[in-house]
Design a protein that fits this description.
11 helices, Rossmann fold, binds iron/sulfur cluster, 3 domains, mainly alpha, 313 residues
């Protein structure tokens, strides 16, 4: 369960076919979700559907211990090559920077932020490790736990073929061996079928769909489209503030002068690699390749419904 429309429709089908007792529901908390999604996925849905939703979170405690030990050696004067071997890095640690980073490099308990502090930067389109670290791995661990307990697991995934070219050729059923298989029950559904399933079950969709968001996931997602980012900054500036704070913190614990930016190389058409989230938000308000401000961008009230799926109708 992500709190999005597709996983909710999938859950409705699962309950219909197998009953509440035959299903387990899992929410992978990235630590970068909108409060409306937490409320919806962990409050409204379990209450309305009468199910329990298990929450899994990635933990990086072991990696923090290793990174702290490495930095302590550099801060004590050991050369980087003695710590990391012959690998070449574009930006080098200094003794002082390593000592400063050590003061701040502690697990925060927020999976997304912890992952970025350890990686020394944010994920990007080309290095989209966030899905693997924050969602796939913790959910796989949960499933393996069930198999160890003697269950056979059929993993129901709410993906749809018309979402992207790479999903078009996915099979709807895969037996992966042992006691594990994957089922994608809504693979051939259109977006209107998904909302119809909500309506038929009397379940309201995540309210973010009525607020200009085409997909519900991280707030923001590194893959947010230009217009969506503009909408996020306009409606939820507190989340841009939070990302800006994360950029400052991640910069403070990574190699000196290395560019740290939430959207670096991440937003289509944006070529700056060292620009902060505020630069990218400014760019999101522009038209004509970033040269001109879109004068109508702020004209509609931020409380108006801007659903891409016509939910107001
Ligand atoms: S929603 Fe976006 S930022 Fe969040 S884990 Fe998925 S790809 Fe990464």
């Amino acid at each position: 369960m992500s709190g999005g429309k597709d996983s909710t429709a999938t859950a409705l089908l699962a309950i219909e076919l197998h009953g509440r007792e035959g299903c387990r529901f899992v929410f992978a908390d990235t630590g970068n979700e909108h409060e409306a999604t937490y409320e919806y996925a962990l409050g409204y849905l379990p209450q309305t559907l009468g199910v329990e939703i298990n929450v899994v979170r990635a933990s990086f405690d072991d990696e923090f211990a290793t990174k702290r030990a490495n930095l302590a050696r550099i801060a004590a004067g050991e050369p980087e090559s003695a710590v990391y071997g012959a690998r070449q890095f574009q930006y080098a640690w200094t003794q002082e920077a390593a000592a400063r980073a050590l003061e701040l490099l502690q697990p925060t308990g927020n999976p997304y932020l912890d992952m970025c502090m350890l990686k020394g930067g944010f994920p990007s389109r080309k290095r989209q490790y966030c899905t693997e670290y924050l969602k796939r791995n913790p959910i796989t661990e949960y499933q393996l736990g069930l198999i160890d307990d003697g269950y056979a697991v059929e993993s129901w995934q709410g993906v749809r073929a018309d979402e992207s070219a790479s999903r078009r050729w996915l099979p709807s059923y895969e037996h992966r061996g042992g006691f594990y298989s994957v089922y994608r029950p809504i693979l051939r559904w259109g977006v209107e079928d998904v909302f119809e399933a909500h309506a038929a079950a009397g379940i309201r969709p995540n309210p973010l769909y009525r607020q200009g968001m085409s997909r519900v996931g991280c707030m923001p997602c590194i893959n947010a489209a230009k217009a969506e980012l503009r909408e996020i900054a306009r409606r939820f500036p507190q989340h841009i503030e939070r990302i800006s704070e994360w950029e400052r913190l991640v910069s403070a614990v990574c190699r000196p002068r290395s560019p740290v930016s939430f959207f670096h190389l991440g937003t289509q058409g944006h070529s700056g690699t060292s620009s902060t989230v505020w630069h990218v938000v400014e760019w999101s308000k522009t038209t004509r390749g970033g040269r001109q401000y879109d004068l109508l961008a702020d004209a509609a009230s931020a409380t108006a419904c801007a659903s891409e799926y016509g939910l107001c109708e």
